[in-house]
Amino acid sequence: MARIPATLSLDRVIEVANTLSSLDLHSSDVFDPRFYPPKNVDVETTYNYFLAMVAIDHRTNIDDKQFTRRIDGEEFTGSDLLWRLGMEMFNRDSAFFSPTNLRRLDPAVVRDWLVSDYGPVWDYGVRAYLLRDVGSYVVGNYGTTIRLFNASGVEDLIDRLSLMAAYEDPVRKKAYLLIKFLALRGLLKVRPQEMKLPIDNHLTRIAYRLGIVRLEDWVLELMRRSMHFSRELDTELRLAVRDAWDAVIRIGKLDPIAIDDFLWRLGRTICIRDKPQCDKCPLRNACNAYARGLFINEHNHYLTYYY
To answer: Is 63 exposed, middle or buried (0-12, 13-18, 19+ CB in 10 A)?
Structure first.
């Protein structure tokens, strides 16, 4: 019999849901010109940009190699820098993100775009492959992104996206991230129950620390030994985390998009990997790790472009 790696803790879910429901949560500005196209850009060009940028939006910092740069007096790092560079490219040539261009994209172009003198992003070749695959898939099957997104519903859209390498993750991190952006831009109608959180390192780490997901002892032992988790085990754990956040959202009657934005910011700035700043955390009184003084990080997984 297969061993279950994690279970939901209902009492913790309820406490976290109640705490989150007392906070004033809001979604991010998806029209911020530093990262995203302006409102007056046509629909197809907007689709092209988000489909491509989400496809390459996975881990940028590896070990001591920091993906960071100062642009116009402001420092950007990680995903923020990736999207900032995306808009620099968009402002130079928005057609760069069209499927017809992406399908024949030279990896050297991606290297010059994402590495230059301030990187390095650790896998520009992989990101070039993902972008080429996006372009080839869209052109070969739909012709345009407008036809790709002309799906019968969210599940149909996810099925279509999952046939591209960038979106094949069974936990659908990038697919739900893309859906979130399109919903906030008013380009996709999504019912709250259709929206799942795009589970990444931050949301996983926060779920473990809050205690809404209870890890089995054998998993904790693997984490203690800094073992690399298989893709199968990683998937099982992230699905458990996604289910736990889904329960939090349902019980607290919360906006899933606002919750995702809040948790992502929390994980990047406060509930960080090595030295969480609990004195600044609005969830500390509902946090199992804070109460016990024992903080675990996300599980150690093999490098992947899934998230």
So the answer is: exposed
Q: How far, in Å, CA of 287 to CA of 244, rounded?
A: 15
Closest CA to 131 of 77, 68, 43, 54: 54
Separation between Cα atoms, residue 138 and residue 146, nearest integer Å: 10
Residue ranges of the chain that CATH labels 1.10.1670.10: 6-27+196-292
> Can you read off the two tokens belonging to residue 144?
């345009």
Whether residue 143 contacts residue 103, with contact meaning beta carbons closer than 8 Å, is answered with: no
Band (177; pLDDT cuts 50, 70, 90): very high
Supply angle C-alpha 77, 78, 79, rounded to 5: 115
Can you give the three-state secondary structure of the chain, one letter per residue? CCCCCEEECHHHHHHHHHHHHCCCCCCCCCCCCCCCCCCCCCHHHHHHHHHHHHHCCCCCCECCECCEEEECCEEEEHHHHHHHHHHHHHHHCHHHHCHHHHCCCCHHHHHHHHCCCCCCCCCHHHHHHHHHHHHHHHHHHCCCHHHHHCCCCHHHHHHHHCCCHHHCCCCCHHHHHHHHHHHHCCCCCCCHHHCCCCCCHHHHHHHHHHCCEEECHHHHHHHHCCCCECHHHHHHHHHHHHHHHHHHHHHHCCCHHHHHHHHHHHHHHCCCCCCCCHHHCCCHHHCHHHHHCCCCCCCCECCCCCC
Looking at this protein, which amino acid is placed at residue 277?
Answer: Q
Indicate the CATH number for domain 6-27+196-292. 1.10.1670.10
pLDDT in tens, 276-291: 999 999 999 999 999 9
Q: Between β-strands 6-8 and 68-71, what pairing exists: parallel, antiparallel or unpaired? A: unpaired
Please state the pTM of the whole predicted model: 0.95
Helix (H, G, I), strand (E, B) or coil at 303: coil
